[in-house]
Amino acid sequence: MTTMLGLISTAWSQLNPKLLASMTTSASSKPLYSKAKKTVQSWVDYDSKSHQLNVTLAPCYISKPQIPLLSTTVNLSSLLSLGPVYAGFSASSGKGSSGHYVLGWSLKLDGVAQPLDYTVLSIREFESHGPNYLIRGAPSIVLAVFLIVLAVLICRHLRKAKEDDDWEIKCGMPSFTYKDLVTATEGFSNKMLLGKGGFGRVYKGVLPTTTQHVAIKRVSPESKQGKKEFMAEIAILGHVRHRNLVQLLGYCRYKQELLLVYDYMPNGSLDKYLYDKNTPTLDWARRLHIIKGVASGIFYLHEDWEQVIIHRDIKASNVLLDDDMNGRLGDFGLARLHDHGVDAHTTHVAGTWGYIAPELARLGKATKATDVFAFGVFIIEVVCGRKPIGPASTSGDLLALADWVRGTWQGGSIIDAVDSELKDYDTTEVELVLKLGLLCSHSLSRLRPCMRLVMLYLEGGARLVDFQPASLVAGGREDEKVDEAVCASSATTVTIISGR
């Protein structure tokens, strides 16, 4: 005989009398009603020999009734032979609302269960408070959960702060006080504003401690990637030094403010000289000088530094001009670096439409070849004075600049694509730069020259093999000539001295 004695408190509005009446045996017993907040006791007896299961229910403090509430025959031997016996409780009130709480239980195998000691079960206190008896501890539970969550958040904040501190120590860049930068920009006034971009605004400033003229980029709080780009730019520009790269002087982190301090480029960005009618037109000698300077800077990033740096956003507006109109490549917020001889990781597509290589848009993998593509579009832009994507001359549909130049070349002479504002220029040099730009922006990455070859072509150290515009169409038989030209030049051992 197996017996289980349980003490159960109910929080029913009223137990369904029809339900209990249907459970009552055929003996002359009355239906049992359970009012709210009343504790009842139950007995469950099972005889493994006769397979008789009896369930008896009665109010608390009353002896076990002689007649069970439920009596049935059921073979539980297959369940009892599975291993250890566990006691549990489950209840349902049908459509009524209810709450059930087990206050105590006693189990005995092969015998009668030991009676419960009601004096230690706080029955009357539970009945007087009902469910509130259990709910009284809810504020403590909520407080405990709150403190745990708060502790987790504090730990994360401290860990993040430590990571930021470690990063600042590792980057080794000087930091400026927020007060000095506010003073330098006259409170970030609009009259000191030089321009704005996707990650914030750039202000002109004069450092109060040294009277040095600087450019201060204030990262926009609305930029979701602002801090990531901020840290990337410091990590990269904090270590590289080259005369054709914008020099980062330091940074400032104050509360939610992120600021970068650069050398001031008094002549602004190159794009205004190409498109602003109120700005003097650059002559060919100056344009070629800027192109060579930017090429030298990219070569340094790709080949001449301790790691490979992929800029990912080469364009005219990111080329700044110093006092001597030297071109300096800036805005390294999107740049990524990796070791030499190691493939770049796939990432999200970044850059500016018109400068994005086909394989970058398709695969999301930035490489040296995708930078070369952007450089090719850039030098065509400088020669033609046109934006990388613009309306076709006849249909008005948008057309990539490289496609427009190739079409112009097929229709007559490639020189016809030169900026109409450009007067005195060397035809041979212009033709070389345009063809090199088309080759660099070829749709097939394997047909683009590396920056080492680009430098050789621009400096006259290697001759660009002649090819026709049909060679630039991917998949055509003529593209083999371009392939031969690139491979032939690649086979030449060269040494380039890059100014720093």
UniProtKB/TrEMBL annotation:
First-listed, main subcellular location of the protein, grouped into a coarse class: membrane
Keywords: ATP-binding, Kinase, Lectin, Membrane, Nucleotide-binding, Serine/threonine-protein kinase, Signal, Transferase, Transmembrane, Transmembrane helix
Spans through the membrane: 133-155
Membrane topology: Single-pass type I membrane protein
PANTHER family given in the database record: PTHR27007
GO cellular component entries: membrane
Family classification: In the N-terminal section; belongs to the leguminous lectin family. In the C-terminal section; belongs to the protein kinase superfamily. Ser/Thr protein kinase family.
Pfam families with a match to the protein in the record: Lectin_legB, Pkinase
Residue ranges annotated for the Protein kinase domain, each copy included: 188-500
Protein name: Predicted protein
Superkingdom: Eukaryota
Coiled coil: none
Subcellular localization: Membrane
Protein residues bound to ATP: K217
The keyword Kinase is assigned to this record: yes
A GO term, aspect molecular function: protein serine/threonine kinase activity
Keyword GTP-binding annotated: no
